Amino acid sequence: MLNFPTHQQPTARIIFQSHDHYQVIYADRSVHQAVLAGRLQLADTLPLIGDFVSGQFYDHDKFLITELLPRQTLLTRASNYQEQAVAANVTTVFITMSLNADFSASRVERYLTLVWDSGATPVIVLTKADLEPALLAARQLELAAIAFGVPIITTTSTDPVTVQTQLNGYLQPTTTAIFVGSSGVGKSTLLNILAAQQLQATKAVRAGDDKGRHTTTARHLYYLANGAALIDSPGIRGVGVASSTTAATGQSFPEITSLAQQCRFNDCQHQQEPGCAVQAAIKRGALSEQRLIDYRRLLRETEYATMNSRQITAAKIKRLVGNKKNLRRH
Ligand SMILES: Nc1nc2c(ncn2[C@@H]2O[C@H](COP(=O)(O)OP(=O)(O)OP(=O)(O)O)[C@@H](O)[C@H]2O)c(=O)[nH]1
Ligand SMILES: [Mg+2]
Ligand SMILES: [Zn+2]
Predict the structure, then answer these.
(1) Domains along the chain with CATH numbers
(2) CB 3.0-4.6 Å disulfide test: which of 13, 81, 209, 327 passes with 303?
(3) Which PROSITE patterns does the annotation name (predicted)?
């Protein structure tokens, strides 16, 4: 049996979410489709992958989520106007970066900030050591200078036994770990090695620039044999865009809302993401670009409307600072 918090009612854990469709795992490791009780659908805080919930079974094996149990940690991602929730109750974040074209020490720095804010513990994982053996030592030094004692692990997928021995120490029965990092760095590959089975699909990176193909499209939580939980996530596609769609904005733009349901990524920003149904509709002339621009403007306004004055000032400063950073970079 999995190690779940005790509660009067049956307790389950969210392992997948897509819009209002959930999957939960029960302590006996059985997986069930799940929905939110009406009362919860209107709550300020919606259950999220990694959350423990309680509820009851209906229709034989479906689960009705009636209560969100208290969170130990919350991992969020920075966005222009607010934080976007990534996963709940994460204890360990594997900041995953490949040693080839993807390498960026300043990106690791940004990830570290997010992880420390969340209450989880970071571990830096440098992948594809086989491809860049000559660069390894210099890059480890570069990271050590910003990582202040955060463990730095180096992996090679063709040596699964070493991968297991290096990462197993971080995967206790009480651990919930998540892999974050760019597309194509080998997050799903590592998960498959640790689970010793092909749980997630993996795909070769583009020749030339080593960019990944966004093979993983949604977060998914798996339990390893020893009871450690491990979340695979899609490669981050540009940080810094708010994702929340308020109900009001959705109602004013029903055609965009319904198109968005068909986007490949749950949190698609309808910019350059692959498989974006909104951009596809613009391309074939079924949606005017102006509609999308108006939609974005309203979205931003409604986001400000839900903030207090201190939060608005903070968001504006954040935007200014972000712009300056971009200026310096170019
Ligand atoms: N040479 C080498 N290739 C690797 C290594 N790790 C992963 N790969 C390859 O890199 C490619 C991308 O790996 P994935 O595991 O799909 O990458 P991902 O991070 O899950 O990518 P997304 O799901 O798109 O975010 C695959 O072809 C892997 O076989 C490694 O250590 N060495
Ligand atoms: Mg993947
Ligand atoms: Zn989209």
Answers:
(1) 11-68 (2.40.50.140), 74-232 (3.40.50.300), 247-329 (1.10.40.50)
(2) 81
(3) ENGC_GTPASE (PS50936), G_CP (PS51721)
